[in-house]
Every structure is written in structure tokens, then in C-alpha cells.
Amino acid sequence: MAEYIKYRVPAKGVSATKGVAELIEKAEEDGVKTAWHRLLEQQPQCAFGQLGLCCRNCAMGPCRIDPFGSGPTKGVCGASADTIVARNLLRMIAAGAAAHSDHARDVVEVFKGVAEGRFQYYRLTDVEKLKSLAEALGISTEDKDEQEIARELAEVLEWEFGKPGDEPLRMLALAPKKRIKVWEKAGLIPRAIDREICECMHRTHIGVDADPVSLLLHGIRTSIADGWSGSMMATYLSDILFGTPKPIKAEANLGVLKEDYVNIIVHGHNPILSTKIVEVAMSEEMQELAKKYGARGVNVAGMCCTGNEVLMRLGVPIAGNFLMQELAVITGAVEAIIVDYQCIMPAIVDVAQCYHTKIITTEPKAHIPGAIHIEFNAEKADEIAKEIVRIAIENYPNRPRDRVHIPKHKIEVIAGFSVEAILEALGGTLEPLINALREGTIKGIVGIVGCNNPKIRHNHSHVTLAKELIKRDVLVVGTGCWSIAAAMDGLMSPKAVDLAGPGLRKVCETLNIPPCLHMGSCVDCSRILIVLGALADALGLDISDLPVAGSAPEWMSEKAVSIGTYFVASGVFTHLGVVPPVMGSQKVAKILTEDVEDIVGGKFYVEPDPVKAAETIYNVIIEKRKKLGWPL
Ligand code: NFS
Description:
The protein is of the alpha/beta class. Helices cover 48% and strands 10% of the residues. The protein folds into 3 domains: 81-242, Substrate Binding Domain Of Dnak, Chain:A, Domain 2 (Up-down Bundle); 254-403, Rossmann fold (3-Layer(aba) Sandwich); 415-628, Rossmann fold.
């Protein structure tokens, strides 16, 4: 169904990534709208919403506050701009923490099933990591076999979500002691993940918490539950089940799709499904089946964070990040996109109707009208994965040959930098990294994470910020859509050392690593927390003393809000490249960008221009170095 395209997108200007413009042009020729087109149709977007000043939390509303003071200054219940903005932000954090942590719950359930011997298609792959996590959480591993350890661990982790009482989350055992003290002092220790999220919803209900400070502090507590427990669990258990990533070579960008192969894209977040699809699709049986249908074989590529999961562990090529999901369909060369949940635009179903691509949803909690729904379940993982892959293969003869256009661009990427892999590259100890930091060979470390947002030039801020930092001898690590952007720009290939400053270059060449390290999917931001905690502990410092920073240059999702908040909560200076919807309250904006630093040692900094942001971030790193008495 071709659509009438009212507004055309200036294709050449919207993305920094090769191949995107040609597919936007193709979309317009084919009469297909993308997120960029729909954003134009949405203009002008609601200013009250952008400022965070609209409240829909009860049916006396919707209420909106006039930011200039010439209209109403209070909602019907009397809520002020400060209350409304803080409440709205708290709900964003709650949704983000819920998404990460519910993903973690699904991984815990499979892990538990494996521990109990119920799921024959999964196994405990990294037993070392299993034991180390169990011991960190106070579970003795002596004289126990791995199944027994896993069963005990599963029980503890299950309770993280809804345990009663005021005891802290058990996973906080992985956080540095100095941080715990900071959180204790400020009353920020989370008790149970579901409880904190639930309390966000309670506090923001009509007539409960009206104080912006108290609302935001609870937001910080909830985000800590996400970063240090929910997301952390997802990472640890995925590593235990599928293996802890090691440096691995692959390719990135839409050019990884193959003209004469059945192309399958795995998209979403959870490795439980995507890993199985990859395994099954690569099997002899499926490769042979593809040949029967006239293809040379089956090619699987990843998209977004589940793409990162299978890239990190299996070297599966990555086709693109968030804003490229529709473009993958527009190539006309994709037989199926198999999704689980999160960051999946319902629009891919509309786009798919113009081509032959089948969109297959698999999660009971993520249906999309118009998609084929095949419910996944871990007990029958291989059978279901086969059924899904078969649908993709059988769809190959339907490919509209005259409308296929795969951009040529693809580039080498080295991914797989888990904490363990970084340690191994360093020779088993943090010492070389600490020395390089202390001496100033590397000035600092910045973690860049998060999404794409069509309001700003696609991937431009991601790569510009990273380039500006590495040339100043700042090591860049990161996850999510940032890491895909960096990969597609060549920043994760060994050649990228040419773009690094002399100090960073020397370190990268000695260790044989690129200057930008791919640490995984968005839940793997927890890996960054672990690195920060380990560095702080080794130096006898708190994370807030370290010459480090965080950034989400192109963020858009509520998950990114939760991530940004737990970085700040962990003591990190955190940059946002898209203005969050808080500007309707000067008070809330000031708390987030100034006052919060006195409580947790980190704060937010908002700057849309990535070059200016790099300068400020670098200056913050230099200030931290000065305080430590390290050479500048
Ligand atoms: Ni994370 Fe953003 Fe989504 Fe991954 Fe990409 S949009 S918050 S980076 S895919 S979760």
C-alpha cells in the first residue's frame, strides 16, 4: 500500500551513516513513509509536552501550565509546574526501569528453568561467572555442582523483583562500598525492583507526592534498582547462559544483507530468542532448505540491542540501529524481521506491507497488529525457532526482485568488550589502565550510550562526540545504538587508532584494541558500572572522583532516562544531547543539572551540539584530574 507522501525528507542531510540517504529516497519513490516523514507530519509538536508541563494523571485534567505565567499556574488539583514536571519525569524513569528489569525477569526465568533441568535447549555456558556471581551474593559454592549453585542463585535473583521488607537489593553487593555509603546517607538504597517502580506510580497518582525533590530522589532510587540490579542481572545471566563476550570480528551497516541469500533480521532486546534464531538458521538443515527455495543459504543480521547481543557473542553482522529498522525493510531484501520487545516501531508492519517482508512477533507482551505472532517459549525453543526460520525461507521466492536495493556500505567491526575481555586485553589486571590514566597517557574514560532520535541528524552526534573525545586521548566505551553508530563509522575497527590522540593511540596499539570499545546492548551499561566500580575500588576512590563521564547524545526512550539517571546516581557527570522534557520547571532543571551533585556526586548536563559537549566533558575530566593531582 503506497502512501501519499506530503512532506519530503531532505534525505542527504538526515544521517551521518552511509546508505541511509539512498534508502530514504527509495522510500519516497516507493511511496513509503519513515519515522523522518512522520516526524514532519507531527510538526508543530506540543510545546507543553516538550516542556513537561502537561498532566494527564487524572480526569479533572488534562491540565497544562503556562510557562510564561500569563495563563494558569496550577492544575485543577493545585499541582504546580515543578510537581507536574517532576512527576512526569519520574514516570519516564519508572517505565525505563520496568522495561530493563522485566527483560531481566525473563532471563532469570530461563536461567531458573535451566538450573532445574527443565529447558533442554539452553545450558550454563560460563560456569566461572556463575560461581563468581553466586559468591558475590553470599552463596557458598563449595562442594556444590553447578546446577545446585544455579538453583540457589536463581532463587535469590527472583526475589530481587518483589521481596518484602526494607533490606537492600542483594545485587548491590556488586556496587563499590563508597557508593553504598553515599546512597545510604541520602536514603536512596533500593529495596526491591518492582516495589520501587510501583512506588513511582503511587507517588505520581493524583494527590500523593507533590514535592519535586522527594519525587526526583525516588527516581534516583528506582534507577539504581535498574542499573545495579535489573540490568546487571540481565547482563550477568545472559553471559552465564550464552557465554561472556570476547573480542570478535564482524561487519556493520545495511550492506551486510546479501542479495542471493534469505535475509533474516533479529530485532529487539532479549538474547533468549535471537541466539536461538541464529543457531537454527545457521544449521545445515536450514541452509539446505534455503537452497531448495532458490537461495544460496540463510543470512542472519542483527538490529538494535538484540543485534548487539548476538554480535558480541557470535559475531553476527549488525545491519543498523534504531532509525534503520524501517530502512532494512525498504531494501526489499529482507524475508523476515523477528522481534521480541522494545524499540520496535509498529511502523515496520506498515512498511512491510509495501514489500514482502514478514514481521514476526514472539512475545506475549509485545503484539503488533498486522504482524504474524508465533509465541516463543523456552521449553520448545528449537522447535519454535525452526518454525520461524522456515517461514522466512519460504518467503524468499516472494522477494520483489525489481524493487531490491541493498546499499553497498559495510565495514569491519571488532566487538565483544565485556569487562572480562577488557581485563584480558590488559593482561589480567586493571593496573595498566590505571597507570595510563594516572600518567595521563589516557586522560579519562567516557561511556556513550543510547538511542537515535529523528529530531537530530542520525548518528551524527554519536560519532562526532566519540571522535572529538578520542582525539583528546579519552578512551570511549559504550553500548546500544551508539555502539552500532560507531561501528558503522569505522570507529571500532583497528584502523580507527589513526583518529586517536597520541597517548590513546599508543595504548590501543599496545593492547591491540580500537579506541572505541563495544561493550554490548543497553542492559550492558551495567558492564560500564562494573568497570567504574572496579577502577574506583582499585584506586581507593569513589566513582565520582574518577576522570570519567557518560553521555546519551541521541537519546529518545524512557529506558535512556533511567540509564542516564543511574549514571548520575553512580556519581557520573552525564551529558544528554536531546533536551529532556523538564524545561517547564526551572527548579527541576536546576536540581538535575546542579543540586543533585551535592547528593550523589554526579549531575546532568544538556548540550545538543556534540563538539561543544565534547569540550565540556573534556574540561570536566581535566577538573577531576586536577583534584586528584594527576598530570593534565
Ligand atoms: Ni537503548 Fe534506545 Fe533501543 Fe537499544 Fe537503541 S533505542 S535506550 S540503544 S535499541 S534500547
